[in-house]
Structures are given as structure tokens and as C-alpha cells.
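Page 47, continued from p. 46.
Same chain as before, 588 aa.
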Amino acid sequence: MPPRDLTPAAPQWVDQPRPLVAVRQMPMVDWYAPSQLASTAVEAVLSGVFGRFVDRRELEALDGRVNDVHNYSRQDHITIDYLADTGDGWNSTYSIASLLATPALGVKAPTSQQALTLPMADVVILGGDQVYPTPSRREYEDRLIAPFETAKAWSPEATAPALYALPGNHDWYDGLVSFIRLFLNKGWFAGWRTLQTRSYFALKLPHRWWLVGVDIQLDSDIDLEQLEYFKWVAKEQMQAGDSLILCVAEPQWVYQGERDCGHWDALPKIAPQRNCPPPYASNLEFLEKRVFERVRTRVVLAGDLHHYRRHARADGAQKITSGGGGAFLHPTHGLSDQALEGGFAPQPSSWPPTGVSRRLTWGNLKLFWSHPRFAALIACTYVVLGWTVFADLHQIPFEWRNAGLAASEVLQRTLNSPGTCGVALLVFFGFYSFADRKRRIFRWVAGSVHGGLHLALCFTLGWAAGRATEHWGLAFGQPPQLLAAAALIAAGGFVLGTTLFGFYLLVSSWVGRHGNESFSSIAAEDWKHFLRLQIGTDGLLTIFPIGLRKVPRAWKATASNDPSQPRLEPDGPSLDPELIETPISVSP
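Result:
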């Protein structure tokens, strides 16, 4: 559906008015629209190629500004909000933004009916992938700035909360141009002040805590200038025994096992020798063990996976995946329950809960309804294949006992025509190559079965269409018969072919594969979350994971037009934030 214009009341500015970005209720991104698939693929390829030759992080370091840290250590306590993967649909992004802008946020506790009241954050950290699908100026305005500006358009300059942002892979698709324009100008982002001058930063917090944000570009190593900056921070600013909160754009503790430690069967010719692992498997490990070796990394935060999941060590150290700022969900079922290196064990609480995650996956069976343009693409593929084969099956009764005879006729027709054979192989390998590449055996088996089933379904639809058109008295091979058969094949491909594709995603998700593809098709607006961190006067860090089970679908103007407050409220049940689990205490 096209975005719906929604204009709240004009705010009563306290100081000089600023122009506001127009409010457009953007729907969730349709990742399965053919045009979207093509444009995103081009953006990803181009950013990957040119990012290797032009590293925007090195250009940032040429501005001549000296190394600095952002000092909040003079306060005796501080509150920090962390959220990642934000700018997607309006409903989900604005729901989270309005919670961040609420001065005193009431949150239901998981074990009692009594609500906690949490103050608004002094600092907001955007953990990566601020906008989807690509970081154009218009997408940033419609999908990110407008929701946050509607939630909080203005703050008194003396008491304005600060905002820092890390770029994710989607922010890098334009070479970081839009990200730099928005976050690195020491200006305003809605009602928050932006203070960073580079795409990475270090915050000195009360009671010898530090928060460091790292820009890892597109799976790249840390650039030299960024490395030198963090070495300077670690050597000249940090003291031995300080406590560190480390923010990265990807949960490398999750990806490390998939990319570096157990999937060499995909590349057997270059597999390393056994008992000879790489010295550092990830940027995260290098930072912890070499750069920040004098301090203790107590918490690591990352988005990129759009769910909440936590790994904890016996001494209280945490590794938390938190990507619930507004984008589509990722599954929480089918994930490994093995402890990570270093003794980090997975914790039972997740968002969405695993049972909900499994139920949501069934939404893939209505793929033809939720993604009609993708279904039309599959229908066209079926029609092209059916017309290319052009086997005369209308004389063979449409019965299972005759399936072998019909299949033999189609196979003979296909093998006798190189063009027909080429089209059939193209369709087969198109579905085969879609299979998850993390395990070679899965791709061989699941990819072959998936591609073979589509060929079988297309054959069945063509056979049925031939028999149906004969029953209607249409002569085989004549234009009326060809058009009627094409319409029948297209209808079957639209519904059955797309449902078969959705069934493949459903089954794959049960075995821990295609989590991204199976849930981006669902594009769920609900089950969003963010983290509120508090460092108290005693130096104890408390993490409040705050979730929304459901986000509103309709909004109305609030009674007040105070620009420091949300200017739209739910037109129906109010937002109902709750703690995902008991607050997590981390000692310094």
C-alpha cells in the first residue's frame, strides 16, 4: 500500500521554529518485490566493490580534528538507550521512538503487575542499519527522521539528550554519504543533539565505565585511523581495570561460528589445517584482546539480527543481540543452544519468544497474498517454461497412473531442444542457487529438491492446462488455446508455485536455515524492543530490555502540541511496554 500522509498539529516552538519533515506513514519494506530485490542487489554489489577502494572512514580522519572522547563522567549516574535496525515501517519505528521520547516511561515488570518508572535517557545510541532498504536521503527522511521528529521535535539546548550512531551495512550502501550528512555535523537529529565527528566514538561514563562504538564497514577489518584512535583512547584515556560497554554493528559472536569455525566444508580447497586457527577470528576479538586489553569488557551490544537474545558468563559479563528498533523480525527458534567461546551461555529469554517465532513462520504459506508482485514473477516464470517446452499432452488423461507417460513425453521434448533444455536448467538452478550456502550438504539436497519440485509443479500445471483447454474445445497450438493454457499455468504458478516457495522457507526455518528470507517475507511490525541502560550512583550497570508485543496501526494527534513530546498517539489501545526479562545487573 502507498504511504498515507498524516499531519499532526504544528508544534508551538519555544525558540526559532525549524522546518519539519513531512509525515508519511510508510509501510514495511516489501523485500520480495522484484524491483526491490534488483535494486538492493545492485546497491550491495556496488558498495562491496567500491568500499574496498574508497573507505569513507579514512576520509573522515582528514578533517584535522584532534582525537577526543565525549565525557559524561562528571555525572554521578546516567541513563542510555540502545536500539538498532530502526527505519522501516512507520508504525514500528514511531512506536519505539515515542517510548524513547516519553519523560517518565512506565514499564510492566515480568513477575508482577507493578510497573517500573524509568527516566528518559541522557544518551541514545543507534546501533546500526538506521534505514531500510537503501540509505537515500528520501528514505532517511521518511523512514527515520519523520518518526523520531514526530516523537520529539525539539529539546532545550542546555538539557537536550545526545545521540550517537553507528553505521550498519545498509547505511554503507551509498558509501556513508547520507549517514555523514545526518549524524556527523554536530547538529540536531529531531530533538536529540548529534555530537560525533566520525562514524565511531568513545564515551567516558560515570564510575569508570566506558562506551565505545566501532564502525566495521562491510565485514571489513578496522581501518588504520580508527584503530589508532581506539589505541589512543585505550592508552591515554582509559585506566587499567575500567569497565567497557562495546557496541558493534553485527553480533560477531553469533556469526563467527558460521563464517570462520565450522563451515570450511563450503570451501574445502582452502580449509586451514586442523589445530591452526586464525590468530583473531573477528574484529571484536581483536579489539577485546589487543586494543582494550587493559580494561574489562563487561557488555557487548549489537544489532543486525532483528530480535533480542542474550549470552551471559558466570561473572556477569553479557553479549546481547538487540535489533528491534523497527525493522522486520528475525526468528528466535532453531538457534544454537551451545555456549560460546569464553563461557557465554545462551539465556532462556528471547524476543519474540521461540513459540511465537515458530507460529509466525507459518505466514510464509500466504506468500502469494502478502507479496503479489513476487507471486507474479513466479507465475511468469512458469508460463515461460510451459510455452518453451510446448509438449502435446492434451491426449493423455490427467490421472496419476499416466504421470510417467506424460513425464516421458515432456523429457523427450526437452532433451530434443537445446533451447528448451537451457530454459529448464535456468529455472532449476535459479531455485537451487537460492538455497542457504552456510552448509554445502544443505544446499545440495534442499536446493535440488526445491528446484525439482518447481519443475514438477510446472509440468503438472501444463498437463492440467492442456486437458482443460481440450475439454473446452480449443485446438492445441492455436492462439486461443495457448492464451487459455498460459492463463491457467499463470494462475497455478501465482498461488501454488508461490506457496511451494513459502513452504520451502517454512521447512528451512525449522532446521535453522533461511531465517532472514523466511521472516523478511512476513515483515512483522510487532514484537519490537530496545534496551535502557542505567549506571547508578554505586557504579552498578542495570540493563532493562523493554519490549512491545504489538504496535498500533492507527494514530491521532495528541491534545498537546508541545514539540518536546510525542505529537501522535495510538488511535485505540495505548502502547504497552514491558520488560522482556528481569533487569540485568552488571557489576563494574
